[in-house]
Each structure stands twice: as structure tokens, then as C-alpha cells.
Amino acid sequence: MTGSLDGRGPAESHGLYLRTLGHACLALYRDGEAPLLITDPWLVGSVYWRSWWLQNYPSAEDLDWLAKSAWIYITHEHPDHFHMPTIRRLGSNPGYLFPALAERGYIDHMSRQGYRARILAPLRWQQISDRVSILSIPVWNDDSLLLVDTPSALIINLNDAKPLAPLLGAIRRAADRIGKPRVLLCSYSPASLVNSFLDETGIVSLKPARHYVDYVCRLSDRLAADVYMPFASQAVFNRADSRWANGHRTTYQHLLQHWQARARLLPPYSVLDLASFNHSSKPPQDYRPIAPAKLDMLTRRQAAEEDAADFSAQEVAQLQRKLNTFRWILWPIFPRGFAFRLGERCLKYDALRGRLRDADPAGGEHGDFVVTVPRLTMKEALRNNHVSDLGITMFVRIRLLRRIDPRKVYGLFVLFQFDDYGHLRSVGSLVRWLGRGLRYTFALRLPMPRRSSS
Fold first, then answer.
1. C-alpha distances in Å from residue 279, one per residue of 223, 228, 264
2. What fold characterizes domain 2-287+438-442?
3. Contact of 423 with 433, CB cutoff 8 Å
């Protein structure tokens, strides 16, 4: 299955290069020309309530060059991938491409803002330039993968989607048939609650850094990758209440220390020549982090806004309704209930009664665990209906009050995601989501890209 977008992009005249920027942004381009394609452009500012910042910001000249891109593909809706401040900076010249996910509010949003946006048909190669095609694969967890076929290499962009084994097998079989060197890009550092749990002894970590390196090594070998480019893990945490998480990042040094895959490991922020497979990279001493004075001003302003926020009775009722969606799942798992600490206020949830009520913040019976969330963060997460994003911030901490498996608490945020993305809105929504997940995971034979003439 092959299609064409709109014929934009020059005919092949120079070798192709692949460059990584920002966090999960790749740029595919010919020497001396504007990019044919970029992905997931978070390239300015911060995300997750000024908690996440980039290790290395592109220059103004880089941003001007990226704004001339023919196409921009957004893998999924998380703000470190779908970042509206960056999109506003890049402007309306590029065409914006999205995967065919169950939740498609992003298309309406982009259209209202005046951008040219469209959904890519899944599992169908689309030609974006002479001898360059892309294939979008939605996955069950509201994310997507992107394959890019070029004259001399197959690029496999898994971002942070964590595809299941049957889909990985389908990609491997397709890559074997295509028969070109493979470049893999995927995340290698935690972006979740795995290190956010606390008990009386300190941090309860679910996974050490070595786990993530081993995962990427297995993934590289499973896909028979020839080159691995570190990707989707170039964030640092710079709020006063999230800096602790920098000590639990998986870094490039961890990759160097534990790398065992067949693939050649490149440094972050590399440029790879897709003909010769030579590369260059930016050394860490040349990175462009946020200016310390600006960082201090912005994080202080965020903290002040959160201290001043109020959590209304209407918002308590909204959070209670969201929790009650899973009431009969939560009650047997957490029969003592659990609590949310919002500044000086504490709200305890009783799943048996379906009630969220005020509790003594200084002590008393708070149930199995307490989730500490700034008031403004919780207000905005509820307003945007993305409560599952709380688990990504690195400043939301969970204190375990009893000896319970932290993975059970982790599951609460997975349930939030199902509701956030509308999969539980109706029986039909749930069936559609399950059907799509099964279709794009277990019933796959990926098509071959059409060989266009040079």
C-alpha cells in the first residue's frame, strides 16, 4: 500500500543526512536544503509545568531552518512531543502530520489555529520526496511509530512508545525484506513514576538505569539495527522540587558503560550521513542550556502561581468523578483508600463509598499512600483532562504509608490515561480502542515501500 502526500520536496540532488535535536526531534534533510521531515519538535521553553527543560537548545538559525521543513510528524499528544510553543515558533509553512489514534482532538486544535494538519493513513507508505517514504504505525498506548525509507537506509523511530513483541517482529520482518542498513531512534531514560515513590527509608525505585540500557540493547538486536541514535531522553529537571530526578536519569554515560548491542552507539545530538554512515556530534561543553537567570525567574514565577492557586469544591467533585470511574477496581486494591496532598490541603479518597473528602493534613488516617501534587498542577490537569500527565512531571511524589507494591499505584495512573483519552467514554469507544490495539499489534504484515525511479 503506497500513497503520495502532495509532491512537495525537491528531487534528489544531494546525500541525505539525519540529525537529532531538542528531545525527540529528528531532521531528515539534503545537504544545503531545508528539511524534508522533522518529528516531535519540542525545541523552545519547557514542559510539564516548567519541570522539564532541554539539555541543548537549538540556535535561532537552527529554528529558522527547521521552520522551512516540508513536513512535521507528531508521534503523540504528550507536550514533550506535541509542543505548541515550538509549533508557533515554526509557523504554518510546514505541513503537520499526525497518526490515526483513537483520540484526535489535536487535529481540530491545529485546524482552529490555522495550521495545515492531516492524519496519515496507518500502515500505508506515503512518499514525501523522491525515493523517501514514511509509514505511520499507531500503537495501543495512544502513541505511534514512524518508519522512514530512504535510498540508503531504513530509519526506525520508536520515540518512547515501547511497542509490544508482535509489532517488533513485524518491523523486523519488513526491515529484512527492505534490506537496507537500519538506524534506530528510541528513548533510553525513564519518563514516569518509576522513581517517584518514597517510604520510610527513602526512594523506592522500580527500575535502575541499567534496566533502560539493557532494554535498548535488546531492542536494537531484535531489530538488527546497525546504528542507534540516543533519542527522546534529552530532558533535564530544573524545578526545585524535581531536580532530585536528575540523579535517576539514564545518561549517555550509562549507555557507554553498559552498551552490549551489535548496533553502533552514537552520541546525542549527532548528524549521520546516510550514505557513508559517518557522523559528527556536538560535545557537551558546546550544549546550549537555558540561561540560569531566565530559568530561576520562570521557575520562581511558576512556584508563586502554584502557591496562590485555590482548589475549589467544583474541582474536588471533578476529581471524585474521575476516581469513581474506577471505583470498583480501586476498592479491592486499596481498601484503606489513599489521599492527595494539595499544598496545605489533604483530600482522602474512599473507593467503597465513592467519596473524596478533606482530611487532616498533619496526620491521621490517609490510607495506603499519599500523592503530593501542587494545586495549580492538579487544577490544570483536570481542566485539560490529562490527569495521567501528573505521573510524568517528576515533582509529583508518592509516599507509601503501608507495605504495598508500588506497581499497584503505578496502575492508577495507567487507568487515568484510559479515561483521559476517552477510551472509557462509552462501550463503543472502548471496543474501538481495543480493536485498533489488537489490529496494529497482532495482525500485522507491513507493506513494502514502492520503489520510485530516480
1. 21, 12, 11
2. Metallo-beta-lactamase; Chain A (3.60.15)
3. yes
Residue 169 has pLDDT above 60, yes or no: yes
Distances (CA, A) of 420 to 11, 339, 388, 416: 43, 20, 7, 6
pLDDT interval class at 14 (50, 70, 90) = low
What angle is formed at CA 136 by the lines to CA 24 and CA 225, rounded to 5 degrees? 65
What is the C-alpha to C-alpha distance for residues 188 and 245, in angstroms, rounded to an integer?
15
Q: Residues 216, 168: contact at Cβ < 8 Å?
A: no
Distance CA 243, CA 51 (A): 8
Query: Can you tell me the distance from the alpha carbon of 355 to that of 347, in angstroms, rounded to the nearest whole number?
Result: 10
CA distance 197 to 40: 29
**What is the DSSP pairing of strand 117-119 with strand 46-47?**
unpaired
Say whether 226 sits in a helix, a strand or coil: coil
Contact 371, 338 (CB under 8 A): yes
Residues facing 138 on adjacent strands: 144
- pLDDT, tens digit (0-9, with 9 covering 90-100), for 183-200: 999 999 988 999 999 999
Listing DSSP states for 405-426 in one string gives: -HHHHHHHHHHHHHHHTTTTSS
CATH architecture label of 309-421: 2-Layer Sandwich (3.30)
State the Cα–Cα distance between residues 336 and 320, nearest whole angstrom.
Answer: 16
Taking the domains of the chain in order of start, what are their residue ranges? 2-287+438-442, 309-421
Q: What is the per-residue pLDDT for 365?
A: 84
The C-alpha cell 483519552 sits at: 421
pLDDT tens sequence across 130-150: 999 999 999 999 999 999 999
Q: What's the mean pLDDT when you consider all of the chain?
A: 93
Long-range contact list for 417-426, CB < 8 A, 24+ apart?
A: 417/141, 417/142, 417/388, 419/322, 419/325, 419/326, 419/387, 420/385, 420/386, 420/387, 420/388, 420/389, 421/102, 421/103, 421/142, 422/102, 422/103, 423/102, 424/325
